[in-house]
Amino acid sequence: MESLMWASTTHKRLVHRIKTSSPSAEAPAISMESKTMRHHKTTSLVTDASEKKHHHFGHRRKKSTNDANIHASKEGHTVPLVKFWKAKRGFDRNVDVIPPIVNETVEWLYKYALRTEGLFRLSGSVVDVKKLKKKYDKGKSPELPSDMDPHIVSGLLKQFFIEPPESILTDELYEAFLQSVEIEDEQARTDCVIEVLGQLPPANKAILSRLFRLLYTIQLHSDENKMTASNLSICFAPTLVRKQHMEMLKVLSNSEVTKCLVQFIIEKYHAVFENRPRAAAIDGDKKMTEFKKALLKGTVRLARNKMKELGQYEDIQDISKETSMQEDQIGMEELQSAHEKRPVQEIAVALWGEDFFAPPDATPSSAMGQRAAERLLATRSLKMSPQREKRNLLNLADLPSKDANTRLRRLSLTPQMMLSRDDIVDPLTQVVVTPPPAELVKEALLADLDTQSEELPADKNTLSPERTARLGHHRTPSSETAAQIENELATQLLRSLERGQDEDTGPAIQNLAAEFAEKVRTIRGSKGTVRAGSFAVAMKLFDVFDAHVSGEYSMGDFGETDETTPAATEGDNVSQT
Amino acid sequence: MGCGNSQEEVPKASAPNLLEKADYSESYIRNKSVINRKLLKVILLGDSGVGKSSLMNQYVHQQFAAEYKATIGADFLTKHVMIDNVPVTMQIWDTAGQERFQSLGVAFYRGADCCALVFDINSEKSFDSVTSWKEAQIQNPHDFCFVLLGNKVDIENQRQVLKIQRVNPLMMSGVQKESSQLVSAKNGTCVVDAFDCLAATTLNRDDLVS
Description:
By secondary structure, chain A is an all-alpha fold. Chain A has a domain at 81-276 and 283-310: Rho GTPase activation protein (Phosphatidylinositol 3-kinase, Chain A, Orthogonal Bundle). In chain A, 64% of the residues lie in helices and 1% in strands. Chain A has helices at residues 2-21, 26-44, 49-59, 100-112, 126-137, 150-162, 174-182, 186-197, 202-220, 222-225, 229-240, 248-267, 269-273, 286-310, 313-326, 332-341, 343-352, 366-380, 386-389, 401-412, 415-419, 438-455, 465-471, 479-501, 506-527, 532-550, 555-561, 566-576; strands at 424-425, 432-433. Helices cover 36% and strands 21% of the residues of chain B. Chain B contains seven helices and six strands. Chain B has helices at 2-14, 26-31, 52-61, 100-108, 124-137, 164-167, 191-209, and strands at 38-45, 74-83, 86-95, 114-120, 145-151, 181-182. Chain B has a six-stranded mixed beta sheet, sandwiched between helices. Chain B: It holds the Pfam family Ras.
């Protein structure tokens, strides 16, 4: 009975929580798409869209267009490799782009090395590999001349997978991956591999897709390069299929299975990566049952860790209690019901977004961008539950809970964050946020402004005693601080405009800023006093820019000034008139 | 009287032949008293594709497989030999040359007596990385006996690496220069010699240490 409860309710709750209660959970999904929107951005901001796009691609490093829908680098600079690592763990699951090192080496290998004997088996000069690796670490894209030793380039690509402690296949899903190849029926095995691959974070899967496509192509030339799928899998299995803190003996005893897995994925590249996941049916097969159990466990663990990253510790504790007690008791019946209710798929959708279930090589569409924008707006209007408001998280402990939550929500992905032109690493969730098209940002920003001005009390009377008490923290910003903030805001805006000016999008940002300023002025003018909403928005802008420019947040300052008390509105008013 | 004694007799009877090395059949050595037997754990290290597995197969089975196949994880074979009149069981560990295993190695190489660093004489790179293999794998280099083996001597005309004798002075300390040889796993040149020599050196060294 209990285990049945685990299978049904836990999943429901898990999905529910990820979906509804955490705006941050939306962040990866959005940011995943925002890179697709980058094309959109470049095109939508100039009059001659097609010409611009052409121009844009002309300057890019040569990329194979067939599977490069996830682009890593902007023109001129690439993202430092360090941004893709989660400290001491592995590939950052919230990253939404393929690192340049993967893109560029894969491309080079396609071009010059498909016929090289012993590719990926023989190693290149360690010194040279390290040298090049260092450049990528610093965010540079070193030139890879065509006459380079192919083993250096292959070594470079391999290095990317070797270095992080956690494999690209994630620790959580290790068992599920191993179980999936144990299944004897080939069709069922394919389904299972697809299913477990479907649980991976989007970037991980995209990277794997690129890698395996390359490996698949290499083994097609095996009469020349001698690298059959079997040989390639021997070389890649220990790197790809591994788990942290495993005993050497276990690693060795598993090596045959891991080899089979990698070989299977190489040989079945098209079937595995170009099909939508579909849950393999549960028959009486013992191995299938084992696989389903492993998959269920892995998925729940992945979700749990994801929530831990998002800072929702209480939720995790609940779920840990439920799952750790019962996850060993999953029976046939529960599996069957889990299969029917598709909780595994639901969790994946909740974690990584629906579009993830599209084949990774699908071409980006503006519809995707549109959906992302909608989701963004939906996220913005989410309300925090009172329960969550009480929570003190990380170093937000000193702030009033409301502020902490506002901040959390804000940090996850605010329109203002997107205003800035560079990738932003969210300090809390480590999400790399890539700016979406300015128009969508504008929309979201204005909508945000409206809700803010409606939401927050305009004057003393609307602030209930309870609320004042709950805020707990009503240090009044003097007129001086308000003026200071205005000044700062202006400076920051200017700076961002300066940044924008040397590129085509500069005017667009200027317009946006002007419009924004107009809106603020209208609100101020119509009521005769400074509305709390505009003040909060101004603060938010300042806050975000500040974080972006200086690279750090000063939590204390924020807490003191965010909630506008009546005195502040008056003070601000004075300074304005 | 019967069985037990007759087994004792066998070595005694063939004792005069001990002077001639060639007369030790493997079955004879295997049957020899376990108590005297020494176990020698030898590990083969080196870049991927230099021929570690081929060397081991040539030594133990006198076979050479022409197929191009990477080693999965690790593998070991044993061979019973007589070294300086001492029965020795050689336990030869063949390792995957994949980089990933460089970090897994420590537990794996525990208890090894000798470490044969294999390189391909046609590949300068594989020779250069011998040093890094040595340093990466062995926590305490002084506990090991190192031997260099330059493989693929049959493809001499393409040779990139200088003759090992000339390179030796440049090599890192700790390598047993006199036991380092150029071999060919393909046609078997010097393979048996090299392993016997390696075993002898290791045993001598162990005697000196103890």
